[in-house]
Amino acid sequence: MAMSLDDLIEAADLNGLLRAVDGLCERKAWEDLVELADRCEEALERGKQLWPIAMHIDYRLALEAPGDYAAGVVHPELSRFSLGPLTEVAASTHTWAELAPHLETPQAAAYVAQERVLRGDRLDGDNRAHPEVLDLPLHLEPWEPTYALATFRADHVEVAEPWDPRAPMEEQTPQEGQLIDDQELESTLLDLVAPWTAESNGAARVAITEGEAPGAISHLAYDSIRIGPLETAEAIQRMAWAAASGGAHGRRRGAALGRFMSWYGAALMNGLAWPVEPEALGNALGSLRWFRWDEGTAEKGWVLRIAVEHPEDGWAAAIAATDLLEEDDEEEG
């Protein structure tokens, strides 16, 4: 085994090394995997471009190894060759009790804790969860949705889709409202899909207007539009799903960040300062009306077309964001 790995490393044989990683995982040879990752990183000094293998080993350890090994590779940064942030990967297959004693930084612990909260854990009172990092509660609020979560495999990720809304869509004639300059809200909405536009093939536009949601939507549509109401939980779920996703080719940011960004956006729309009290946000959400919309044609890939209006304050906002897979591309994110 040692000579074989030596040969693979010196030849920079990525496919052979991936097969070796599969074999070590199958045998649960975690210490050997750690050593192989170290040797791949050391080989960089000799010009061997093996850092994708080292990153893949970290991913497999986070996914499959016991809690102490998994926590040892967890960090909140996004890895280029990982199918998701390792905080999300580890939390998807380990309990909080398995990981918490071994997490080395408050940031990593906070993101892992939030991923576990999204999977039903209540971690209130556990200081190891560092709630001050994300300023989110360590339990799900009654008004929150069932979030769309990811299931990680050795070589791919399966991401749940937002549920189908109950209310039907109705056609409307586009009629543009008076545009409003609100750069903070525009940036917050565009940030929901930043990986789609910055790292992938996607495009996104936002319109903010006086009046009702159709007036904002009309600035983003080219012809006819269809609009249907969304429940608050449906809208929060869609924003969180988009913010967690990497789109077709971008890096997935994880459900914990998706929850944070949906909360932050909802607080901003209601004029609430951050960090926000969960009960105050839940009560304020009743002031908003949410909608989904399209242009009457089927859409593929990653799509976020939602709108919101604040009847009391007299404004509306809409986002049109899409990201398409290239032909014959089966990558998921």
Explained architecture:
The protein is of the alpha+beta class and 333 residues long. It has 2 domains: 2-152, no CATH class; 165-323, no CATH class. The protein is 41% helix and 14% strand. It contains 14 helices and 8 strands. The strands form 2 sheets. A 6-stranded antiparallel beta sheet has the order 3-5-6-7-8-4. Strands 1-2 form a two-stranded antiparallel ribbon. β7 (302-310) and β8 (315-323) form a beta hairpin. The longest helix is centred in the C-terminal third of the chain and has 15 residues, at 255-269. The radius of gyration is 22 Å and the shape is globular.
Order of helices and strands: HHHHHHHHEEEHHEHEHHHEEE
Number of helices: 14
Separation, N- and C-terminal Cα atoms: 34 Å
Number of domains: 2
Radius of gyration: 22 Å
Share in β-strands: 5-15%
Please outline the major beta sheet.
Answer: 6 strands, antiparallel
Derived structural class: alpha+beta
Q: Stretches where pLDDT falls below 50 for ≥5 residues?
A: 327-333
Question: Can you count the beta strands?
Answer: 8
Approximate helicity band:
40-55%
Query: What spatial form do the alpha-carbon principal axes imply?
Result: globular
Average of pLDDT = 94
Strand order of the largest sheet: 3-5-6-7-8-4
